[in-house]
Amino acid sequence: xxIKSVEVIxxxxxxxxxxEIAIGKFSFAENVLIKVQLEDGTVGYGEVSSSGIITGDIxxxxxxxxxYISPALVGESIERYRYLIKKLRSIIKFHPGTxxxxxxxxxxxxxxxxxxxxxxxxGGASYEIESDVTLSITTPEKATETALSYFEKGYxxxxxxVGKDFDEDLKRVLAVxxxxxxxxxxxxxxxxxxxxxxxxxxNKLYSKDVNITLFEQPVYWKDIQGLKFVTDHSPVPVAxxxxxxTATDAFNVARERVVDVINIKxxxxxxxxEALDIIAVAxxxxxxxxxxxxxxxxxxxAPSVHLACGTGEFSYIDLDSYLFLKELPLKGGFEVxxxxxxxxxxxxxxxIEESKKEK
Amino acid sequence: xxIKSVEVIxxxxxxxxxxEIAIGKFSFAENVLIKVQLEDGTVGYGEVSSSGIITGDIxxxxxxxxxYISPALVGESIERYRYLIKKLRSIIKFHPGTxxxxxxxxxxxxxxxxxxxxxxxxGGASYEIESDVTLSITTPEKATETALSYFEKGYxxxxxxVGKDFDEDLKRVLAVxxxxxxxxxxxxxxxxxxxxxxxxxxNKLYSKDVNITLFEQPVYWKDIQGLKFVTDHSPVPVAxxxxxxTATDAFNVARERVVDVINIKxxxxxxxxEALDIIAVAxxxxxxxxxxxxxxxxxxxAPSVHLACGTGEFSYIDLDSYLFLKELPLKGGFEVxxxxxxxxxxxxxxxIEESKKEK
Lengths: 359, 359
Description:
Two copies of one chain form a homodimer.
Chain A: E1 3-21, E2 24-38, E3 43-48, H1 52-55, H2 59-69, H3 81-89, H4 96-114, H5 118-121, E4 128-130, E5 133-135, H6 140-152, E6 157-161, H7 166-179, E7 184-188, H8 195-207, E8 212-216, H9 224-233, E9 238-240, H10 247-255, E10 261-264, H11 266-269, H12 272-285, E11 288-291, H13 298-311, E12 316-317, E13 331-332, E14 335-337, E15 340-342, E16 352-353
Parallel strand pairs in A: 5-6, 6-7, 7-8, 8-9, 9-10, 10-11, 11-12
Antiparallel strand pairs in A: 1-2, 2-3, 4-15, 13-16, 14-15
Helix pairs in contact in A: 3-4, 6-7, 7-8, 8-9, 10-12
């Protein structure tokens, strides 16, 4: 079945509140919706998140790139999805977030066309996953209040953004840890520490009996030896986020065991196929896997939820960005029950439903 | 859709002529057919080749293992194929050839059930591949005669078994090379040389202007440093066959760049899913890929043909074992036009057709 059209539509989604990480602050999601339509009317959706500070993709470049390369898709058979994805990559380099949106739309269209839900297409290993919830950099009081409100909704795993101010970070993590004592705490420095600060930070937390399970991207993404230093001196697993985009990056950190865990985000690696390659490298080398997200709606999250459920290979799930959006442009992709993300009732593709508004 | 039954049937297929490699000689294929049937009548086929000297799988153990673990499959949903395959592996270790047969039957049943040919399920990157043809250890005259007969049928790539007698091997390769001068020559020592013999052998051939493109498994499979020595001193790419079974093995050879090429065989790695993982590791680390086979019929070869076509990732194709069998128990899987193996007309699954005999 041939591809009839590729549309690209700006999606401006206001955030519930501004989101701050060590490398910047932003107040709403300027995303992009990609809609691939086949000649028989089958549709596939993908979303590009504006994650310029990480991947170089912003709303306007995403629109430019999709318009530029979509003629290479129109008229081609959706059944040759791997060839199509290779073809797109032979046209233009970088822009992994945009490629992820395009590939997700292609895979959604294809699995809708063959009538198989994506998580089953990927192996159907499980029907649901449990996500953490992310707490941004704020006062200990505000962070504790937010943590308690999520705890009441059933969340047991909290990921705290740190990496901005050593002492303030410590206070905030300790405050949250005391407020929700039986919960799992993860910290994410988003490159904000030096290697030695990072080692001091994680050992300090560990010595305070915080139930800390993961230390994500403590140092500068290019500082491979610094990252290895932290891993070698951390009592808890260290994860690479910004350091690992592709399977080759994963191979290079695995080769020297620079980290214990790789955080896959489709917007970094460019889509599900490359993500499967990273999973393979991690499994082959004994590393654990995390799956994360950019600030994206259920449309962009759905392929990650299906990937995690379908393969069953992820030890750490961080797919919570839909919580921070005031509205969702289209429904579907997965069901939500507190921290549980459930794909069991998806009948085909990603299960994205077109709302009346969008039509 | 649930699995109704798993049958295991001995397949004794006489070889056209006895086949000799450096580590042994055999005169017919004692294989096994696995038939997975779903509750709606959908069928999937897999074949186990008796490759005990490489993988430890022989006909009787394959039958034992399938009977032992098939209760874990019956009643399960075929749509959870990745879960099923993990479940089987959680029951018993090793036996990769038997697992490959089982997994191939599961994937054939699943892709038949969803109505998608396996090569498209894997991405539909291409519709056909070109295989080499293997010439066993014999006199230079006989090898030349065989090469010429295949050349007349359109073959342009010849893989010569070597590794038994340095001087005889050299004479035979030179004789074939002179008889089919514009063709590509590959040599496979099946672990038969010492590292220094291997280096002398490949450089001697290269100095004689033989159009040599690949040197497969020159030394003992466990001799990683010996293999690296050959790779570092060979003017042509060196491939690991027996040295690499799984994605972890691939990672370990890639880490030190022990070889240039990895030869994937489903019977070694245990099936298509692990093969995809090896492909990922090889791509991530810049290694090339070869796909090979045991002595198996079209039933066992079909998943490899679909994998190679579907992914488009293989630089060296060695899927010729069906040529050495006097009869094929079931038809289908792919079409043959000389060295070309074609999947274009497969409508669903592997396209294996049940013959009247088998019914």
